[in-house]
Amino acid sequence: MPRREDIEKILLIGSGPIVIGQACEFDYSGTQGAKALRDLGYDVVLVNSNPATIMTDPELVRRTYIEPLDVPHLTAIIERERPDALLPTLGGQTALNLALELHGSGVLSKYGVQLIGAQVDAIRKAEDRLLFKEAMARVGLESPRSGYARSLEDAREIVKETGYPVILRPSFTLGGQGGAIVETPAEFERKVLWALSQSPTHEVLVEESILGWKEYELEVIRDKNDNFIVICSIENIDPMGVHTGDSITVAPAMTLTDREYQRLRDQARTVMLEIGVETGGSNVQFAVDPKTGRVLVIEMNPRVSRSSALASKATGYPIAKIAAMLAVGLTLDELENDITKTSAAFEPTIDYTVVKGPRFAFEKFPGADDTLGTQMKSVGEVMSIGRTFPEALQKAARSLETGKAGFVSLRDRVDYRVLAQRQEDLRDLAFDAPPATKPRPTLPPPSPEELKAALRQVIKRPVADRLFYVGDALRAGISPEEVHEITKIDPWWLSQMMRIIEHETRLRQASELTRELLWESKRLGFSDAQIAELRGQTQDDILALRKQKGLNVVYGRVDTCAAEFPAYTPYLYSTYETHTESDVSDRKKVIILGGGPNRIGQGIEFDYCCCHAVFALRELGIETIMVNCNPETVSTDYDTADRLYFEPLTLEDVLAICEEEQRKGEVLGVIVQFGGQTPLKLAVPLEKRGIKLLGTPADAIDRAEDRERFDALLSKLGLERPLAGIAKDPAEALAVARNIGFPVLVRPSYVLGGRAMMICANEDELIDYVGVAVDAARDEGLEPTLLIDQYLKNATEVDVDCISDGRRAVIGGVMQHVEEAGVHSGDSTSVLPPHTLDPEVIAEIESHTRALAVELGVVGLMNVQFAIKDRRVYVIEVNPRASRTVPFVSKATGRPLAKLAAQLMVGKTLDELGVYDQPLPTHVAVKESVFPFNKFPGVDTILGPEMRSTGEVMGVSLSVALAFGKAISAAGARLPSAGCAFISVQPEDKQLACLLARRLRNLGFSILATHGTAEALARAHVPAERVNKVAEGSPHIVDAIRDGRVQLVINTTHGAKAIRDSYSIRRNTLQMGIPYFTTVSAAVAAVDALEANAVLAEGQVSGVRSIQEWHARMLQSQ
Amino acid sequence: MTQAFLALADGTVFEGRSLGADGQSTGEVVFTTGMTGYQEVLTDPSYTGQIVTMTAPHIGNTGINREDSESGEAPYVAGFVVRDASPLVSNWRSEEDLATYLRRHSVVAISDLDTRALTRHIRDHGSQNGCLGTGNPDDLVDLARSAPSMEGLDLVSRVTPKARYEVSEGLAEWSPEVMAERLVAGNGSPLRVIAMDFGTKRNILRCLVDSGCHVTAVPAHTSAAEILAENPDGIFLSNGPGDPAAVEFAVKTVRELLGKKPIFGICLGHQLLARALGATTYKLKFGHRGLNQPVKDLATGKVEITSQNHGFVVDVDSIARVARSTHLHLNDGTSEGLEAPDARAFSVQYHPEAAAGPHDAFYLFRRFTDLMRG
What we know:
With 1118 residues, chain A is of the alpha/beta class.
C-alpha cells in the first residue's frame, strides 16, 4: 500500500531538554523520523524546546519551532500551522503525554488533527498501570500480582494472592522511603503497619516480589497489516529490581532456549495487539523466574524509546525511521533494509555481542542515594560491540571513560571496607542537608578475610560500579555460586567474567607474552593498557609486541543479517578475527572523534557539533569517518557519516582506526575539537604518534590550558584575568589563597563540567575541599593539580563563541549570563544578545576574543568566558574548541558555527566562505538549564560552580522578558499568574528583593518572608506576612510550602551554615513542583517574564514563530 | 584444547579448537543464522550430511534438554562449527552440557573458529563440501574433495524410520494461548493423518496432534497403495534432508496419492509435492537457513517471519504451469508455498512448526484440518 495521500502536513513533537531517562536518543529518533517523512514528500512541522538537537536544525524540515512543549504553545502552533496529523511516538514520554493533553483539551478535534502512530486508547492502556494489568489479564498474560492496601486487613487479603515474599511500597514517599520486603508471615504485620504509617495517604502497594528474576526486553515493530517483527532481544545482567536504564544489558538474550524465547515473542505480539498499537515500534519488558521459567509481563512502551535506539544501533535496523514510515500507511514488506538492500520485513540476527553500560554522575550530587532501584539515575550510556561477551564487556568498560582500561580490579582505588561500612542513610532527605564530604581516611591493607567479608557486604547493594565489585569478589576467591546467591546475577554472566579473571592470572604469571597468549588476550577484549598493567610494561610496549607478532585488529560489519547478505553500509566494530571487512576507500577523508557517553558537562551539544562536521565535509566531497560509542546519538546513526566505527574513544582504539584508514586514500586528519573533553584528551597522544590533527594546533590548546603559558598569552595581548595560582596539596593551596585573598574558586585542572569545583569563603572550607578534590582527581586517574582563582563577587559572566581561520576571527555570538559569576556557565541562564551590557563593553569583549583567536592561531571554533565587574573585562577561560553553547548560538542566529568551523579546518578561509561579522540579532534568545534534582532525593538544589544540569532549552521572542518566560516554561516550571510568593534572601540581596516584592504585589501576589527579609520589606513599606524559619519551629515555611500555600519561591543564601539551614526549603519546594529561584538575578528575570505574561489573556501565549522565520526576519533587517 | 580445522573443498582452511568427538567428518558446509535453537538444529534430520555453522557466537549457554530435541535424542549433523562454546550452562531445563552431548554422540565439532569469515566465504562462493577434524589440513582438504556431492544424494533413505509409529505427544505447555486457538480444530472426531516421515521434525507431529489429528508416521518407502488402504483423512509429507530429485521413489508415491486425499507438505514435502505435480527443483547457492526469513502470503499480502532450512528450492516459474504459487520469499522471490486446489494439496517450503523459530505460520495446520474436514 502506498503512503497516505489524505494527509500532507505532519506535526512532529520532540522530547524537550535532556533529562535523566530522556536523552539524545530522541534526537536520534526524531531526526530519523523527520527525514523519513520529509523524503516521502510530507510537509513536516517540528516542535522541540531543545536547541542542542540535530532535529531542530533549520535545514531539516520546512518549519521548526523551538518553543515550550506545553498545551498553550502547541495549541498556538497548531492554530498557525494547521497540520493534518500529529506523530507523538518519536518524542519519548514528553510527546506522548502532550498528545494526550492536546486530545483531552479538545485541541486536536478542534483543528482536525489526527493522531498517527499511536491512538489515545492505546497510549492510556499502556501508560496506566491498572489498565495495563487488566489488559494483560484479559489475554491470559501474567503480570506481577499486587494490590493497594489501606489497612492491615486489605494487605492480608492481597498477600493471599501474591504469596511470600512481598514488597511493600508506601504511596507518595520520596525515593521509595518506607519500602520493605516481607519474607515471612511472622514479620508481615509489623512491616505493613510501618509502611502504612510512612505513606502520607496511608496507602501501600503490596506486590509479589520478583527481585532477582531475570529481566528481558523485546523491541518490536508492527504495521497496519498486522505484520510483526522483533528487532532485538535484550537481557539484563542486573536482575529485576534495577531500572533497565541503569542496568548493564546485553543483546541478544543469552540464557534462553528457543522455546523460552519464542514464548516471549508470542507474548510481545499479544501485548501489541491487546494494547492496540497499530503501527510503529514498541518495547515489552518481561521478568522470567530463573527457577521455573514463569514469565511475567512488566510493562510496554507504545513508542520508540531508549531501548529502541539501542536496538537500532545494536542491529543496524533503524526502528524510528521505519516506525515513521509505517505511521503514514506504508507496510513493512514495501520497505527496504538500507544495509542489505533486502526486505525490511524480517528480523535482524546478529553474530556479535552487544553490551550497554550506563554512565552515572553521583559525584556531582553529594548526598544522593547511589543505590540503584526502580528510579533511573544514570545520565548516559555506552554501547560496545565484540564478537563475544567478554570482549564486548571489556570494550564497554573502557568506553565508559571512568578510568578503567577494561573489566579491571578496583582494589587499588576502592577500599571495600569503607564501602561496606556505609550506614543506612538515617537522615530525612526532605529536611536534613547532605553531610559535608570529608577526605577519606587511609587504612592499612586488609587481610584476605577482611576483604572477602567486605566484598560480600558491598556486592549486595546495586550501585554504579557493582559489576566491578563483583569482579573483585570473584578475584578475592568468593565462589561464583556464592556471588550468584548474593547478587542473583545469572551464573552464565559470572562464568564469562571468570574467563577474564582467569586470563588475568595467566597474563600475570606467564614468563613470556607469546603470540598465542596475546591473541587469546585480545580475543577476550583485553586492551593493550590492561595487558601492560598486568605485565608491568607500557601500552606502547604491548602495541609494539603485537605489531611484531602480526596481531592486528580487524573490523566486522553490523549488517542486520549475520553475514547472510553483503552489507552496503560501512558500520564497523573492531574485533580479533581472521578477516577484516573495513574495505577502506581511496578517497580524501577526515576522521571525527565523537564525545563518548553523555555525562554532566558533556552531552548532546558535542554530538551536534560532530554531526555538523560530517555535514560540512560531505558538502566538500570529503569522506567522513565517525568514531563514537554512544548509542543514543545522531552521530552513531549509520546514515550520518560515510563510515561509522562504533568503538571506544581510547588511544588504542582510535590509533587502530587511523592506521586502518591510512591503508588507502588520504587521511587529511582527525578532528578532536568537536567532541568535548573525550577526544581532546587524545589530542597530544595522537599527535605524538604522528597523527595529523585538523584545525587548531594542539600547542594552542596547551597555551590555553597551561597556567603559565596562559598568563604569558594574556600579558602579551594586554588582557586582564583574575588573580590565580596552582597548588598540589593543602599547604600550597592555603599559601596561594592567602596571597589572592578569599573568597577563592578552586578546581582540579583538565576536568570538564566543573567537577569538584568550589568557591571557598575561608581557610577551613579550602582545606576540607582540597582533600576531596585530590580524591576526585585520583578517581579519574589524574595528577591532583589544583587551580585556585580569585573569585569576582557579583561580576557578570559572558560567554563568546567565535570561529577563526587562523588569520581572522568572526564572532558567532555573545551571551550574557543571568546568574552572576560563580554559577557554572553550563548551569546558568544565558541571553543572546546581552541584555544589560552596554555596547562599548560588548565591543571590547568581541575585540578581545578576536585577538585571542588570532594570537592562538585558532582554526575552527573557540569559546571564551569573561567576567565583567565595574565595566572591567576579565578573561576567565579560553577554550580553543567547540563549546556547549555552539548549538544554542547557531539556532539563535541562524549561522551554523560548527559546520563553518569544520570547513575552516580543512583549509577553507572565512573570506572563501563569505563569513563576516553580522549585526546583533533582532530578537532575543534565552538559554535555560534543566536539572535532575527530582531524581536525586537528598541533594541540595542550590546552584554553584559545579555543573549539574543535564540539559537546556531555548526561548525566543522579541523582548528579553518574553523570551525568559518561554525559556522558564520550556524548562518545565509553570509560572503562576498569582498567589503567594515566598522570599528569603541573604543580606546583600535585600535591596533588590524589596523591589521584586513590590513588583510581585503589583501583579497581585501576596508576600511571605522570613524574619530578616520581612524586616527589610517593612522598612521599604512592602506589606508581607512573616513566617518562621524551620529552626524557629512550627508552623514554619516548610509547613506552608507543604500545605500548598506558596506558589513561587525566591531563596538566596550564602555560607555553609546558612545553606544547610535553608536546605529543607529548597528541597520541599522542588518536591511540590513550585517554581523557585536561588539567585536574585534569575528571580528578576522571572518577574520580568511574569509582568510580560500578565498582559496576555488567560491561556494565551506570546507569539510562536519558527526559527526559519526568526532567521529570515534577521536577514531582512540587515 | 586440541587444534582443529575445517577444510573446504576449494582449499580454504579455517582454524579452531576441537570441541566434540575426536576424528574427522565430512559433509556439506552450511550456516544457519538463528540466534536460538542450536539443540533443535543438531537434532533436525534435515541437516543430515551437513556440517552446520552457527553464526551466533555464543553456543551452548542453555545446555541440552530432552524436551527440545527435534527427533530422537541423537544429533543428525555431520559436524558442528561454533565461535564460542559456553564454559557453563545456565538454564532451569538443562540436563547436559553441549560438549558432553556432542562427545557422547560422536559428533565432530569445532569452536573458536572465525564463523563470520566462514559464513561470508560460503555466502560468496556457495555451499560446498568440507572436512572437519584434527590432523593435517591438506589431508582434510583432500577428504573434503572426495566427499560425495549433495546433489543427487538420497539422504532420506538414511533417516526415514524402519517401521511405522503412532504419535500422541502434543506441544503441552509450549502451546501458547494464541497458538492453541489456531490449532484446535473444533470438536469434531479426531482426523486420521498418515505422515510420510522423510526425516520429520518432532514438532510438526506435535502440532498435528494438537490440531486434533491422530497421526501415524510411516517410512518413506511406504507405497501409495498401502497408505490409501488405511483410508486416512489426510496425508502429510514431512521435511527431510537432501536433494528432492534424488528421491524419485517418493515423488512417484506422492504422484499416486494426488487427488485421492488432502495433502499437506513441509520443506522437502513441499519439493516432493511440487515435483509430483510436474514442477522442477534446483539448488540454491547457499540455501536459506535461519529463523528470520520473511515470507509473503500472496493471498493476504501479510508477511510471516519463518524458520527455514533448505538448500534446494522449487522453481517458481515451473509451478505456474501446474499449480498455484501461494507464498514467496520476500528477499529473493523464491517459492515458499503452493496449492493444487483440484488435488486438495498444498505445501510450504518453510517450517510452520518452528522449533526453532517464530510461530507466525501455525495457521497452516488449521488450514490442513479444515481441508480434511472439507
